[in-house]
Write a structure and sequence with these properties.
mainly alpha; 17 helices
Length: 443
């Protein structure tokens, strides 16, 4: 039985004497033309003196009523996406990717040349990193004290390039010689005190389960139940997800890569080899630095650039996958194509950072296929823009983007994605309110 309805912002019976309670509604169906039928098992007969307001109850228990559909997600509207982009510091927030699009559909649109490994380009990236890192150490040695922060910033960014080289090696996208890849990857990670194989195993799981609750090995939202269960650690968690978040990869590095219990039995031997290499570097390299330059020299030449590297490691990772509109989902709701294309952020940085870090922030194609070498990421991104551009999240690095992440993206919420600490525990969230006051807000 068809039901014709009028548009309204309220839900009520035609008699206007008896409101419809949503808890009594058994079914809401739409004909696709703005017509809605509401059914429930039993409804008392309503009488009115006005014939136009009479509702006759038949065996089908169908009632004429005014109904309004559930409001669409803000991401469904171009106007709302534009508003959110400006609010969060994005250049573009992509519209939701349809459920029927698969990773294969996306990958097949990429040109085959972006998957090609070029040993010459790989060698060029090594030369860029070695040269820029050597220049950074020279600047640290020669710079007066007031220019040391600039020298550390350069050197920390340069050594991040070593990480990107090892990152490509771990994905088997650096060299055609796979044994050579493992050697270069191990050596590239040594100045960072990163064990190559443990990181590779953890990072592969990040790619396989990007933004999947409990499973993604990169940034996860804070769980309110766990947050409430450790009152003594709340302040540390708030600082960690707030002011100290650009260095929180240090905690991830320590907790996730040196504990053998976190790895599968078939991974243990390779993990032990990598740990042995790291400990050997520390046992030989650190004493040599201290012997030549003293403890202050160790801090100047190794510790400060290492902290600079972790600034980029933390910042890049959280910008890639953290935003108020990007959800973390349970495994039964998770969609690979949506997580990798729709849930990864492309962010442009100043050109000197892009060069020293080998375009690692051209990150969406890397999540479509980790087998794309870093020197082919820009060509792959151009292809994605042509074929899937309306679904992409894109930004240029700015203070508003950072402020959004540091002051909003804290506690997991299924409906809102994130709830800020100052909403959950306002009496303890002074670090967050402080950031909201002092951080610039320009995009």
């Amino acid at each position: 039985m068809a039901c014709s309805v009028a548009d309204s912002g309220f839900l009520f019976l035609a008699s206007k004497k008896r409101p419809i309670h949503s808890t009594r509604i058994a079914q809401v169906a739409s004909s696709g033309t703005g017509t809605y039928c509401l059914k429930w098992e039993s409804l008392p007969q309503i009488r009115s003196k006005q014939k136009s307001c009479l509702i006759s109850l038949r065996k089908t228990n169908v009632v004429r009523a005014v109904a309004v559909p559930i409001a669409p997600s803000p991401l469904d509207s171009a106007e709302d996406r534009k508003r959110l982009s400006e609010m969060y510091g994005f250049r573009q927030i992509g519209e939701p990717l349809p459920d029927n699009v698969t990773m294969k559909d996306i990958t097949e649109t990429l040109p085959k040349k972006v998957f090609e490994i070029d040993n010459g380009k790989a060698l060029k990236s090594v030369l860029i990193s070695v040269t820029s890192y050597t220049l950074g150490l020279f600047m640290i040695a020669k710079a007066p004290w007031y220019l040391l922060p600039l020298a550390w910033a350069w050197t920390g960014t340069a050594v991040t390039g070593f990480f990107v080289i090892g990152h490509d090696c771990a994905h088997k996208s650096f060299s055609k010689n796979k044994f050579l890849e493992d050697i270069i990857g191990t050596l590239a990670f040594l100045p960072l005190i990163y064990p190559y194989e443990p990181w590779r195993f953890k990072h592969d799981r990040h790619h396989a389960k990007t933004n999947m609750l409990h499973e993604d090995t990169a940034w996860q939202p804070v769980w309110k139940e766990e947050f409430d269960s450790v009152p003594a650690l709340r302040k540390a968690i708030i600082f960690g997800y707030g002011p100290f978040r650009p260095w929180m990869s240090i905690a991830h590095w320590w907790l996730c890569h040196f504990n053998l219990k976190k790895f599968r039995p078939n991974e243990i031997n390779r993990v032990k080899i990598s740990l042995g290499c790291v400990f050997a570097f520390m046992a030989i390299g650190w004493p040599l630095i201290i012997w030549k330059t003293g403890i202050i020299g160790w801090m100047k030449f190794w510790l400060m650039p290492w902290l600079g590297y972790h600034f980029w490691m933390s910042t890049f990772t959280m910008v890639h996958h953290t935003a108020p509109h990007i959800p973390f989902k349970n495994c039964d709701e998770w969609n690979a194509a949506q997580a990798q294309l729709n849930g990864t952020v492309h962010c442009d940085y100043p050109s000197w950072i892009e060069v020293l870090c080998h375009d690692i922030n051209v990150h969406i194609p890397h999540h479509i296929s980790p087998r794309i070498p870093s020197y082919n990421l820009r060509a792959a991104h151009q292809s994605l823009q042509q074929n899937w551009g309306k679904y992409l999240n894109e930004a240029s690095w700015n203070w508003r983007l950072m402020k959004t992440i540091l002051t909003i993206c804290h506690v997991y919420d299924k409906e809102q994605n994130y709830v800020s600490f100052d909403e959950v525990v306002p009496e303890e969230a002074q670090p967050i309110t402080f950031l909201k006051k002092v951080m610039p807000d320009y995009a």
